[in-house]
Amino acid sequence: MGSSKDENIPSSWQLAHELGIYSNLNAKDVIHLATTIAASQNKECDFFITNDGDLYNESKKIIKEIKLENKLKVLKPKEFIEQFPPIKKIGGLPTSLARKIAAAKK
Predict the structure, then answer these.
(1) Distance CA 23, CA 25 (A)
(2) Could you give the CA distance from residue 90 to residue 93 in angstroms, rounded to a whole number?
(3) What whole-number distance in Å separates Cα of residue 73 and Cα of residue 86?
(4) How far is CA 89 from CA 24, 45, 77, 92, 98, in A?
(5) For site-directed labelling of 91, which of 22, 27, 57, 78 has its Cα 20 to 30 A away?
(6) How far apart are CA 47 and CA 65, in angstroms?
(7) Would you say 33 and 59 are in contact if contact means Cβ atoms under 8 Å apart?
Protein backbone atom coordinates (compact mmCIF):
# COMPACT_ATOMS: atom_id res chain seq x y z
CA MET A 1 0.00 0.00 0.00
CA GLY A 2 1.51 3.35 -1.06
CA SER A 3 1.51 6.49 1.00
CA SER A 4 1.31 10.06 -0.26
CA LYS A 5 3.36 11.27 2.70
CA ASP A 6 7.13 11.62 2.57
CA GLU A 7 8.66 8.65 4.38
CA ASN A 8 11.59 10.86 5.53
CA ILE A 9 9.29 13.05 7.62
CA PRO A 10 8.96 11.82 11.20
CA SER A 11 5.46 11.04 12.44
CA SER A 12 3.80 13.42 14.85
CA TRP A 13 4.41 10.84 17.62
CA GLN A 14 8.14 10.72 16.85
CA LEU A 15 8.23 14.52 16.85
CA ALA A 16 6.25 14.64 20.11
CA HIS A 17 8.75 12.30 21.72
CA GLU A 18 11.68 14.52 20.66
CA LEU A 19 9.93 17.74 21.66
CA GLY A 20 9.01 16.24 25.02
CA ILE A 21 12.65 15.51 25.72
CA TYR A 22 14.15 18.77 24.48
CA SER A 23 11.52 21.41 25.29
CA ASN A 24 9.83 22.88 28.34
CA LEU A 25 6.34 22.12 27.02
CA ASN A 26 3.78 19.96 28.77
CA ALA A 27 2.53 16.74 27.13
CA LYS A 28 -0.62 18.13 25.51
CA ASP A 29 1.25 21.14 24.10
CA VAL A 30 3.99 18.85 22.76
CA ILE A 31 1.38 16.73 20.95
CA HIS A 32 -0.36 19.84 19.60
CA LEU A 33 2.88 21.33 18.26
CA ALA A 34 4.24 18.03 16.94
CA THR A 35 1.02 17.37 15.02
CA THR A 36 1.18 20.85 13.52
CA ILE A 37 4.84 20.46 12.51
CA ALA A 38 4.16 17.08 10.89
CA ALA A 39 1.17 18.52 9.02
CA SER A 40 3.23 21.51 7.83
CA GLN A 41 5.81 19.13 6.35
CA ASN A 42 3.05 17.54 4.27
CA LYS A 43 1.78 21.01 3.24
CA GLU A 44 -1.41 20.45 5.25
CA CYS A 45 -0.89 23.28 7.76
CA ASP A 46 0.55 26.78 7.49
CA PHE A 47 -0.22 28.23 10.93
CA PHE A 48 0.09 27.33 14.59
CA ILE A 49 -2.26 29.64 16.48
CA THR A 50 -2.22 29.87 20.25
CA ASN A 51 -3.14 32.37 22.91
CA ASP A 52 -0.91 30.64 25.49
CA GLY A 53 2.12 32.89 26.00
CA ASP A 54 4.51 30.13 27.08
CA LEU A 55 3.46 27.83 24.22
CA TYR A 56 3.72 30.72 21.76
CA ASN A 57 7.27 31.63 22.84
CA GLU A 58 8.54 28.04 23.02
CA SER A 59 6.91 27.16 19.68
CA LYS A 60 8.46 30.15 17.92
CA LYS A 61 11.87 29.12 19.31
CA ILE A 62 11.44 25.50 18.18
CA ILE A 63 10.15 26.42 14.71
CA LYS A 64 13.16 28.71 14.24
CA GLU A 65 15.61 26.04 15.49
CA ILE A 66 14.29 23.45 13.06
CA LYS A 67 14.26 26.02 10.26
CA LEU A 68 10.54 25.91 9.48
CA GLU A 69 9.74 29.61 9.86
CA ASN A 70 9.09 29.85 6.09
CA LYS A 71 6.64 26.91 6.19
CA LEU A 72 4.90 27.31 9.53
CA LYS A 73 3.95 30.59 11.19
CA VAL A 74 3.37 30.73 14.94
CA LEU A 75 0.78 33.39 15.68
CA LYS A 76 -1.51 34.59 18.42
CA PRO A 77 -5.18 34.88 17.36
CA LYS A 78 -4.92 38.68 17.25
CA GLU A 79 -1.83 38.50 15.01
CA PHE A 80 -3.62 36.10 12.65
CA ILE A 81 -6.64 38.41 12.37
CA GLU A 82 -4.39 41.43 11.77
CA GLN A 83 -2.46 39.62 9.02
CA PHE A 84 -5.47 37.87 7.49
CA PRO A 85 -8.58 39.99 8.02
CA PRO A 86 -11.92 38.19 7.76
CA ILE A 87 -13.18 37.69 4.22
CA LYS A 88 -15.74 40.32 3.24
CA LYS A 89 -19.04 38.58 2.65
CA ILE A 90 -22.00 39.29 0.40
CA GLY A 91 -25.19 37.54 1.45
CA GLY A 92 -23.29 35.22 3.80
CA LEU A 93 -20.83 34.06 1.11
CA PRO A 94 -17.25 35.22 0.53
CA THR A 95 -17.30 38.01 -2.07
CA SER A 96 -15.36 36.05 -4.71
CA LEU A 97 -17.67 33.04 -4.38
CA ALA A 98 -20.80 35.22 -4.50
CA ARG A 99 -19.55 36.83 -7.74
CA LYS A 100 -18.84 33.43 -9.32
CA ILE A 101 -22.33 32.19 -8.45
CA ALA A 102 -23.91 35.36 -9.81
CA ALA A 103 -21.89 35.07 -13.06
CA ALA A 104 -22.87 31.40 -13.46
CA LYS A 105 -26.56 32.29 -13.15
CA LYS A 106 -26.39 34.74 -16.09
Answers:
(1) 6
(2) 5
(3) 18
(4) 42, 24, 21, 6, 8
(5) 78
(6) 17
(7) yes
